[in-house]
Fold this sequence. Notes:
By secondary structure, the protein is an alpha/beta fold. The protein has a single domain (3-417), classed as Metal-dependent hydrolases (TIM Barrel). Helices cover 35% and strands 11% of the residues. It has 14 helices and 11 strands. The strands form 3 sheets. A 6-stranded parallel sheet has the order 6-7-8-9-10-11. It has a 3-stranded antiparallel sheet with strand order 2-3-4, with no helix packed on it. It has a two-stranded parallel sheet with strand order 1-5. Helix 2 (122-140) packs parallel to helix 3 and helix 3 (158-171) runs parallel beside helix 4. It is globular, with a radius of gyration of 21 Å.
Amino acid sequence: MNIDDLVLVSIDDHVVEPPNMFDGRLPAKYVDDAPRVVKDDNGVDRWMYRGNQTGVVGLNAVVSWPKSEWGFDPTGFDEMRPGSYDIHARVRDMDVNGITASMCFPTFAGFSAGHFRHVQDETTNAMIRAYNDWHIEDWCGAYPDRFLPLAIVPSWDPVEAVAEIKRVAAKGAKAITLPELPHIDGLPSYHNMDHWGPIFEAMIDNGLVMCLHIGQGFAALQLAPDGPVDNLMIMACQISMLGAQDLLWGPAFRKYPGLKVAFSEGGIGWLPFYLDRCDRHFTNQVWLHGEDDFGGKLPSEVFREHALACYVTDPTSLGLRNEIGIDIIAWECDYPHSDSIWPDAPEKMLGELNAVGATDEEIDKISWQNACRFFDWDPFQKGSRAEHTVGALRARATDVDVSTTTRKEYAERYALAHSS
């Protein structure tokens, strides 16, 4: 495939929420409790909610920085590339990177509203509703043909969660981000259908996908306390396998055949071993379960009916794309994190697929078709395919600066732009 003809849909990027996102979105009685950005004694912007630090502003928003400046330390808006938090700048960065559509996970709120979980009451429920309204109406709504709306819910309260699922579905949401391993945070596990069953039913009834983004379940990895941070960053994707195990071998996938789950940023490298191991265990250890536990199918078949596996780069595993399941693999960019591919995503993505001999049909499936089918998304809402290709998008973004830029340089530009 010619790179200019490639169509890219990224189903895992991130938004760094702007400090004014709650303005005008809350009933008067909740306004004083709204999360706010404050600058700490070290000059770092931090989100505060009801007296507690709640998440961060720009953790790992390092795109376009020199690698010597990368790190895990939170940063302020003035030091980040504006595409991290400004929707108009984001679309320009998507254009120059050849990406026609994106789904953006939260930053300060936590991938599954985890940073709100320390205060579980009606006020927090109001904040979650306001967050979703901002995300759907302001962030995605500014360019509705370029963004797949993703919502958060109070997963600790099934009644409230179901109500919010119905509400955001009516507003156009395509997915709900939930915890990978809820029991890690003291919630019922995915084996508990009294808690999760109503939530799963609501998502199925409203056509929403369940997204499990790596991060919430880090505590499941009992890594050496004196080991390097590399241990966590390399092993993080294995948490997706733990989440898959609870859903596949618990009642979720068998009781709810319509449940769709995207393993966001989990990669695909774990799948060949995991699915082979599931099938071998099922057929060999039949004394542990009934022969019809998976409805006359192998566990791997049931998994493929429910799952979408999402990767940033996976050069070796793409060689096993048909063994994994060519219809359940989707690509993601991860902008603006340190794993993201910008501004040369098309070159790297297509290079990996060309290296393993992927056909044009297979490339289309992985680059956009699988994701769009799974999330029921039309990437060509405005115009033809030809207007959404890498070549077409880049042609209208030739003026976008893609040079390496230091934090200090961004801060100077920010100060100049806001001096008035």
